[in-house]
Amino acid sequence: NAGVTQTPKFQVLKTGQSMTLQCAQDMNHEYMSWYRQDPGMGLRLIHYSVGAGITDQGEVPNGYNVSRSTTEDFPLRLLSAAPSQTSVYFCASSTGTGYTDTQYFGPGTRLTVL
Amino acid sequence: GQQVMQIPQYQHVQEGEDFTTYCNSSTTLSNIQWYKQRPGGHPVFLIQLVKSGEVKKQKRLTFQFGEAKKNSSLHITATQTTDVGTYFCAGRNTDKLIFGTGTRLQVFP
Fold it and tell me: Which residues contact A26 (CB under 8 A, 6 or more apart)?
């Protein structure tokens, strides 16, 4: 199993550009989520999904869109990139929201918005 | 909304000294998880606590969940240079897993 994969690893955007961060998992996990990590801020939840066709907002959803058309994929779309979105983005998946779910993280995407 | 705070933000210790990080939630949690992130890496799951007052040990690491299920702690005995990294707690309330701000541990040989 590849686990959780993320592409690209690095990306530089100009203000106003749009792009999609890709996330895929091959563990048949129902629960997937996106976090951003900024110095001193920890990991902040952007959006999450409890299954295909279902998504919901996390702590910091503004400026981001998600969709979950399949169990495997959970892409994150930046609609119009802003310098405040410069961050490291992590995708994670788990078996579900039960009492014994472990979050498996991808390697991250380091995004810089100029 | 739910908030999870960790203290301290940074901790520098001499190898062999003990280390403790504390996690506090604004709401009651159904469970709490701990993760470790090495510099340049991604968070890796360490352990999950579910029961009120629960204590679990992993070699030199001791994890505790508070009686009110709103706080937790991680204690490392006799730190080693391999313990370097950032330690995060993550609290679950309903279907959201909210991470704490993290404690960055530096160990000097």
Answer: A1, A2, A3, A72
